[in-house]
Amino acid sequence: MAARVRLAFSGRGEGFMRLASCHAGAVAGDTLVAMALAGTLFFSVPSTEARENVALYLVLTLAPFAVLGPLLGRVYERFPAAYRGGLVLSAAIRGALAIAMIFFTGSVVLFPLAFALLVLSRLHGISRSSVLPVILDRPLELVAANAELARLGMVGTVVALPFGAIAVALDMPWVALVFAAAAYAWSTIAARALPAIDRPALAAYPSGDATPVRVSPRPVRLARFATAAVRFLNGFLLLLVAFAFRDADAGFLDFGALLGAGGLGFLFAAFVSPMLERYMSEEPMVVMGLAVEAAAAFIAAQVFGLPAAAVLAGAAGFAWGTAKFGFDGLLQASVPAEGRGRAFTNSETMFQIAWVLGALLPVVPIIPVELGLSAAGIAALAIQVIYVSATLVPVAAARRREITAASAAEAPETDLMDFF
Predict the structure, then answer these.
(1) Which of 96, 114, 244, 287 has the fewest CB within 10 Å, making it most exposed?
(2) Which H or E run contains 376?
(3) Which sign does the torsion angle of CA 210, 77, 84, 270 carry?
(4) Per residue in 124-133, pLDDT tens?
(5) CATH architecture assigned to 10-206
(6) What CATH class is the domain 213-409?
(7) Mean pLDDT of the chain
(8) Helical ranges in 248-368 per DSSP H
(9) b/e per residue, 126-159, with b = 16+ CB within 10 A?
């Protein structure tokens, strides 16, 4: 097993191995911090206060993107070396924040610390996605590379889970935060070892699209809309089910089962997406994510309970993974390398806003869980129709133009003398 993991880390070249190590450490740290915060903000307080805590946390997550998003896009455009610097800084500062959180687990200061850590986690994601195509030995296998990076990130989660579970069981969240700081330190060291990214390296990356840097191609914009819809539904379904179980006094193990099912669904998508890439383009992968989410929501609405909720969480994880891998591959293949940082910044901002807006709806305790699940299924179906229609309209128009041009070319020339 260890040999297979080593092969997966090193199978796409030295640069990918370093990036995968950096990502696995970052994901492990994020997992441990999430487990430490779950006991502090969600389980250890009454239901009403838990809703208020979650609402405050969600609103705080939106604030940085209004400022950080445009600024980060410009920085990445002007300074290509900032890709690697973003990975190093995000991991190192998160390690320091994890240590600081140990001393403020019962204080309101925990919120700005968690807020800063989330911002840096987004910075890591944008930098990772932007730099991946440049350090690949075979830069055309984008969906497969994104999926493999996600699988290796799950290795970090699997390694972190026992440490986090021990900390939660002992009611000692600071233990999880210590291990998180160690994971972030590992991520920092791996990021430092990445090859330097400069303008010649970006210029050498093959791009088959001459689209201007500041304008994403139409297929990318449409796929971003549909992927954001998947993210919106994920946030809504996760918090809807979480509060339903919280109000029923469910235990940590029940929530652990839901989170584990979601992780397994995402991992399954990481294995399936490279196979899907062989038979379809990226856009149908996004449609598949919406279809799976709609079906799971309708089924869970009929037989809601822990098993159905676990299936729903797994389907939501699979839907998000499939849509995200397809979208990332489409963006990386369609947008020139020097404009990818801005494009990913805009996309991640949109996805985060969509997730928060979806997650805020169940915070207000007026939505019956069965009604919410049915509404989510209907919304997913409606978005499928809109996305597919918007994608096919230009194709149909182009085909009509081709047929008209071909007919005009084949029509015989008419001379006025033919009428006499």
Answers:
(1) 96
(2) helix 369-410
(3) negative
(4) 887 887 777 7
(5) Up-down Bundle (1.20)
(6) mainly alpha
(7) 75
(8) 252-277, 282-302, 306-334, 340-360
(9) bbbbbbbbbbbeebebbbbbbbbbbbbbbbbbeb
